[in-house]
Q: What sequence folds into this?
DNA sequence: ATAATGCCGACTCTATTGGTTGGGATTCGC
DNA sequence: GCGAATCCCAACCAATAGAGTCGGCATTAT
């Protein structure tokens, strides 16, 4: 149960973009250098984020990446979900009958709680919050 | 970011033990059958739980496993930690200088929050809570 | 002695992670 | 049009972890 580097890097990159939102796109090498992320790897990460509609890219000279939405409209949970898949920790939490013992399974209580704790924590912070660092502990 | 089967199984087994605490040890095959867990795999899981001091085993005929402490004294977090390693999701959360950019890193705020949300959710429930199912949603 | 049980080490198979490499396709400035 | 900067993409690779399995040994009640 560990956050992948992919996800760490991705969030850092998004925060970087949020903090350098001057209207013109930021080239990948700049982000990579600024955040010490291996450039080719970052490229794959940004591809995912683009597919998820979180960043938009412009090609060609003086191209680069920008946030697709205002930073205040991007929750950290969006970023994590785009990179890590659905936040749900265990398959059986949405009761779709996948687990035969679902109703008699006391453990589900735990996973359900955990799920909502995680979503709460991640969806309650936006990129803007992070750039302002105005998050209460 | 997904809970391993190991961990799912382990928690189920612990709940089973908590619910069948009649003073005499419960043999592994019984747990395995009752919870539909492949027996050899469960064996490895119980080994970890024993090393962590959460269950105790008695060998020989009519041996088996028992909780090492009363169910009310075992938090779910204890079980998960024993099976999944430390709950911390990202290396840099305890500030041990491992990450050079630690103080300027806005993302840490997120991971720290997430960390405490997770510990809160998992350490706030004990095995007894689960057997009684008296957990508020 | 035997059977039931736990203990343990070695093994396989698969998917994921964390990358790298190499080549395209676009677009700007000249 | 040319070249440089940039994004786009597919293929590849090594290491690790997850999920089990297998076979044998140690212990103990009967």
A:
């Amino acid at each position: 149960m560990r956050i992948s580097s992919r996800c760490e890097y991705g969030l850092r990159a998004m925060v970087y973009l949020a903090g350098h939102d001057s209207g013109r796109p930021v080239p990948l090498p700049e982000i990579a250098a600024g955040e010490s992320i291996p450039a080719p790897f970052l490229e794959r990460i940004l591809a995912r984020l683009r597919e998820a509609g979180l960043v938009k890219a412009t090609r060609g000279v003086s191209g680069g990446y920008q946030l697709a939405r205002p930073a205040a409209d991007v929750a950290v949970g969006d970023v994590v979900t785009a990179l890590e898949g659905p936040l749900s920790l265990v398959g059986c939490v949405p009761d779709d009958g996948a687990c035969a013992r679902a109703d008699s399974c006391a453990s589900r209580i735990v996973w359900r709680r955990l799920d909502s704790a995680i979503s709460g924590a991640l969806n309650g912070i936006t990129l803007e919050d992070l750039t302002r660092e105005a998050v209460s502990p």
About this structure: The CA atoms of residues 92 and 100 of chain B lie 10 Å apart.
